[in-house]
Automatic annotation (TrEMBL):
InterPro entries: Amidase, Amidase_CS, Amidase_dom, AS_sf. This is Aspartyl/glutamyl-tRNA(Asn/Gln) amidotransferase subunit A. Residues 26-450 form the Amidase domain. One of its GO terms (molecular function) is transferase activity. The keyword Manganese does not apply. Transmembrane segments: none annotated. Pfam families: Amidase. It comes from Humitalea rosea. Keywords: Transferase. The keyword Transferase applies.
């Protein structure tokens, strides 16, 4: 942790607001930890140390003058290197955008600035946010702080590793098929994919128009609640952003799950799950029961159709976004990524439109069968134990392609459905790597899923465990 007395975002923000710690002290502790340990993890692409120090000093001065400061004032953060900040390079983890200078600042970053957060720079990621494991042929793989031989999860690999390692208190990621929740589960932290349209995507490099989401990777559900309150809400620059009112998510964290009904979907999500994952999952269900929730097992035969539609849409939309570069600069893509994008050009137009047109009916069917009688559904975030980087490196051997793609099997469906989903740590496997619990709810029910995640974390300490970087 940067400062052991303030191990979470909310603890650090509250301590700064109370005058217990300075923004400079929090920032210097984070910068020192990065300097000492990031060579082993490769989580940082650009470190803006002096800018962060200047920002921290200005916040300390503002506090001393008695100025009103935001709910995240004094808290050091870094973000996935696909969030644009005007005048600074945003690589998107790629060779193609290695020198791209952003013309605008992402709305999410502007809102964090207004809330008093300190931006320390940008974080490593999978190239153009397109793999579930965190491999990067251009900037090098980000490495898991629990064991550097293993995957961090992707595509928000640096965000997961940096928060788990205590380099920063929070990091924004993006989630198109699991790219927030997978780094959260593999690195042992909390990751939230909000309802699609809940957070504006202005100034964020797109991957799939239909599935992209902006969200946080943090230590706890309480941290996610506070940060989401800041970044959520309508943005006129993003016509797809929702006009739905933004509630006080933190106020919903009562710890009381009495009367809550939780469904375990046994079809699809539990198939071929590893024994250590299932052991941690079953133990997590007992914790939820202990908090007063009623847990019921159900079957949903529609899951395979949802998974098939998800793959078709994301590949076609990615191929559309990358069409010019794929024609003019195909050599600048990693092998596995160009293969994935090329596949999008082979999907017939009517098939793509059919997959899009099924989205509404399948969402209605899913809600009717899983979220009308139940408040939440829970699954393992990742069915298998955390894989090694070697066994999922498709550039080194295309035979690894299947293992790389399988990582997102349990997360992808919720992008197609557009539902809010959070991953929290729920144990460790027999190799000492984290296991994640995924909770999903109705559209715009972030408060409900965060309340359940927070209740779980009140009775467990998995989210507070930190890797021994020494």
């Amino acid at each position: 942790m940067p400062i052991s007395e303030y191990p979470t975002l909310t603890a650090a923000a509250d301590a700064f607001a109370a005058g217990e710690v300075s923004a400079v002290a929090l920032t210097e502790a984070c910068l020192a930890r990065i300097a000492a340990h990031d060579a082993a993890l490769n989580s940082v692409i650009r470190l803006d140390a002096e800018l962060a120090r200047e920002r921290a000093a200005s916040l300390d001065a503002a506090r001393s003058r008695g100025e009103a400061l935001g709910p995240l004032a004094g808290v050091p953060m870094m973000h996935k290197d696909m969030y644009y900040r005007e005048g600074r390079v945003s690589t998107c983890g790629s060779q193609i955008r290695k020198n791209f200078v952003a013309p605008i600042t992402a709305t999410a970053l502007s809102r964090l600035d207004e809330a008093g957060a300190i931006d320390c720079g940008t974080l490593n990621m999978a190239e153009f946010a397109q793999n579930a494991t965190g491999h990067n042929a251009h900037f090098g793989d980000c490495r898991n702080p629990w064991n550097t031989d293993y995957c961090t999860g992707g595509s928000s690999s640096g965000s997961g590793a940096a928060v788990a390692a205590g380099f920063v208190y929070a990091a924004l990621g993006s989630d198109t098929g699991g790219s927030i929740r997978l780094p959260a589960t593999m690195c042992g932290i909390t990751g939230l994919k909000p309802t699609q349209t809940r957070v504006p995507r202005t100034g964020v490099m797109p991957l799939s128009f239909s599935f992209d989401n902006v969200g946080p990777l943090v230590r706890s559900a309480k941290d996610a609640a506070r940060l989401l309150k800041v970044i959520a809400g309508r943005d006129e620059l993003d016509p797809t952003s929702a006009r739905e009112p933004v509630p006080d998510y933190e106020a919903a964290l009562t710890g009381d799950l009495r009367g809550s009904r939780i469904a375990v979907i046994e079809t699809y999500f539990l198939e071929d799950a590893d024994a250590p994952v299932m052991a941690a999952f079953e133990a997590a269900l007992e914790v939820l029961r202990g908090r007063g929730a009623e847990v019921t097992r159900i079957a949903l035969p529609m899951m395979r159709a949802i998974n098939a539609c998800t793959a078709m849409i994301s590949r076609v939309e990615s191929a559309t976004i990358h069409a010019n570069w794929m024609r003019d600069r195909p050599q600048d893509y990693a092998t596995h990524l160009s293969a994935r994008i090329y596949a999008g050009y082979g999907v017939p137009g009517p098939t793509y439109v059919a997959a899009l047109s099924m989205r509404g009916p399948l969402l209605r069917a899913f809600v009717a069968e899983a979220l009308s009688a139940y408040d939440l559904v829970v699954t393992p975030t990742l069915r298998t134990r955390v894989p090694t980087r070697a066994e999922t490196d498709a550039d080194a051997d295309m035979a690894n392609w299947g293992r790389m793609m399988a990582a997102s099997a349990n997360t992808r469906p919720f992008n197609y459905l557009g539902l809010p989903t959070v991953s929290v740590p729920c144990g460790f496997d027999d190799r000492g790597l984290p296991v994640g619990l995924q909770l999903a709810g109705r559209p715009f029910a972030e408060a409900r899923i965060l309340a359940a995640a927070d209740a779980f974390q009140r009775d467990t300490e998995w989210h507070m465990r930190a890797p021994n970087l020494a």
